[in-house]
Design goal:
single chain; mainly alpha
Length: 197
């Protein structure tokens, strides 16, 4: 992009470019130059909006966390309807077929980014911890509606689902995880507490 030409929605354009680089080439390929080249803009555009590259990456993670939290309201609203196991399998697949696995790799591989994120949230893995919170809230709603056993420990079930699904999707270069494998995993984790007919 020529200097002096306004770029509409620069932040979102840069975030989307970073996701494409992450998904295509992995966390080690994510540099400010790779992001701006992918976005089709000058490197200075990134630095006009963010103090440095780690600040950009931290905001990318926060933005993707907000998206997950935004989906949580719709998920909670669906409680009491449909196939509980199928819904969980679909949510986990949507999460891990997105950029989540690559962002987890990014956070674990960049000390500066991890340190920035730790200032706000001293525990857990960003994105995965948030996704577990969304699932726990949904499972609590299902428990309140009687579709899970009254003693179902949703604060254990949710991160167990996240961890098990993450293992299914962790190798971004391997074969695609099938829907049946995800559903079997979800059924194994929550099968003992599901009470739907």
């Amino acid at each position: 992009m020529p200097t002096g030409v306004a770029m509409r929605d620069a932040r979102e354009r840069l975030f989307d470019a970073a996701e494409r680089v992450l998904l295509r080439d992995g966390p080690s390929a994510l540099t400010s130059r790779a992001v701006t080249a992918e976005a089709g803009c000058a490197k200075g555009v990134l630095h006009r909006h963010f103090a440095d590259f780690d600040a950009f990456l931290a905001e990318l993670v926060r933005d993707r966390v907000r998206r997950i939290e935004g989906r949580g309201a719709a998920l909670r609203a669906s409680a009491g309807t449909g196939d509980l196991v199928g819904r969980l399998a679909d949510e986990l697949t949507d999460l891990f077929e997105s950029v989540a696995v690559a962002i987890v790799g990014l956070v674990t591989s960049r000390d500066g980014l991890r340190a920035r994120l730790r200032r706000e949230r001293p525990t857990g893995v960003p994105l995965l911890t948030d996704a577990a919170g969304v699932l726990a809230s949904y499972l609590a709603a299902e428990r309140d509606l009687g579709r899970l056993a009254p003693d179902a420990d949703v604060d254990v079930l949710a991160p167990t689902l996240i961890g098990a699904a993450h293992l299914l999707f962790a190798d971004r270069t391997g074969p695609t995880t099938g829907a049946d494998a995800v559903r079997r995993t979800v059924a194994a984790v929550v099968g003992g507490v599901v009470r739907e007919g």
